[in-house]
UniProtKB/TrEMBL annotation:
Top EC class, one word: isomerase
InterPro entries given in the database record: Carb_Metab_Reg_Kinase/Isom, Man6P_Isoase-1, Man6P_isomerase_Firm_short, MPI_cupin_dom, PMI_typeI_cat, RmlC-like_jellyroll, RmlC_Cupin_sf
Family of the protein in this entry: Belongs to the mannose-6-phosphate isomerase type 1 family.
Protein name per UniProt: Mannose-6-phosphate isomerase
CDD domains, alphabetized: cupin_PMI_type_I_N_bac
GO molecular function annotations of the record: mannose-6-phosphate isomerase activity; zinc ion binding
GO biological process, alphabetically ordered: carbohydrate metabolic process
Catalytic reactions on record: D-mannose 6-phosphate = D-fructose 6-phosphate
Enzyme Commission code: 5.3.1.8
Length: 320
């Protein structure tokens, strides 16, 4: 097996709330000025990534998962479990909630549930997110939703660049205006909208809400996710572990100089948010820079990064 990183082409999705930051910040060639999402590392049928280098150039990630399972350590999961996105919330996203695996399996044709997390890349000075709600019972929640008492129901949190939020399934949430976020999530496209600010699309239609399902899956009362964020310094790298659980592990690598790594999972997803460096695998070097997304497959047991970069990195669950 070739020891090489799989670099991926972004898949852009237009959204009512999207903007131009994916171009302005990362230099991507975006299709329109309402580009809301870059599906950076995706094997989801609604937007699979394509490999742009090496042995598997032109192959999509979902196909590789099926035809070359050895690249991922011969996994048992039927679908690639993770999805990395960059979101440009030029205006407020709808207030939404996602189901867990068990509920999605029954109600969404076997789709995975959606637990996700956000790393705030950049945001406006007074940016906020919706994270959680104030209702103590399902009755109270339902009543506030039906009466449109959004200010009373929704919890707003001020954010700043570098913040990390864990958003398990069942959590009411929304990104606010002026936020650029890297999202690591289960590979799912199931969203239940609770409130959309009564917005209309270009044809004057409001977007569909999914209140019954949303009320079904929302965690009531809201529980704040407990995080144990740890940072370790080694060589010329600072490595922060944001979360490590049965869905994924997510890290931030801040590298200034030369840092060596050994794999801790069958494969590793890397998104370069800033800077430039050399990625050295098996004595071969290639340049990695801001806006690059790649997977280090199973055969890559160790690698070195030499330069100055900030990256968000994820792996499938580490079986403790």
């Amino acid at each position: 097996m070739e020891k090489e990183a799989l670099f991926l082409k972004p898949v852009f999705q237009e959204r009512i709330w999207g903007g131009t930051k994916l171009h302005d910040y990362f230099g991507y060639q975006i299709p329109t000025d309402k580009t809301g999402e870059d599906w950076a590392i995706s094997a989801h049928p609604n937007g699979p990534s394509t490999v742009k280098n090496g042995t598997y150039q032109g192959e999509t990630l979902d196909t590789l998962w099926k035809t070359h399972p050895e690249l991922f350590g011969n996994p048992s999961e039927p679908v690639f479990p993770l999805l990395t996105k960059i979101l440009d919330a030029n205006t407020d996203l709808s207030v939404q909630v996602h189901p867990d695996d068990a509920y999605a399996k029954v109600h969404e044709n076997g789709e995975l549930g959606k637990t996700e997390c956000w790393y705030i890349i950049d945001c406006a000075k007074d940016a906020e997110i919706v994270y959680g709600h104030s209702a103590e019972s399902k009755e109270a929640f339902t009543e506030m939703v039906q009466n449109g008492e959004w200010d009373k129901l929704l919890r707003k949190v001020k954010i700043k660049p570098g913040d990390f939020y864990y958003v398990p399934s069942g959590t009411i949430h929304a990104l606010g205006t002026g936020t650029l976020v890297l999202e690591t999530q289960q590979s799912s496209d199931t969203t239940y909208r609770v409130y959309d600010y009564d917005r209309t699309d270009k044809d004057g239609n409001k977007r569909e809400l999914h209140l019954e399902k949303a009320i079904d899956v929302t965690t009531i009362p809201h529980v704040d996710a407990k995080l144990d964020i740890q940072t370790e310094q080694r060589d010329h790298a600072s490595i922060t572990t944001f979360v490590s659980n049965s869905f994924f592990s997510v890290y931030k690598w801040e590298i200034a100089g030369k840092a060596s790594f050994e794999k801790i999972a069958p494969y590793t997803l890397v998104s370069i948010l800033d800077g430039k460096a050399e990625l050295i695998i098996d004595g071969k070097a290639e340049t990695i820079q801001k806006g690059d997304h790649f997977i280090l497959p199973y055969a890559v047991t160790d690698w070195t990064i030499d330069g100055n970069v900030t990256a968000i990195v994820s792996t499938p669950p580490l079986h403790h």
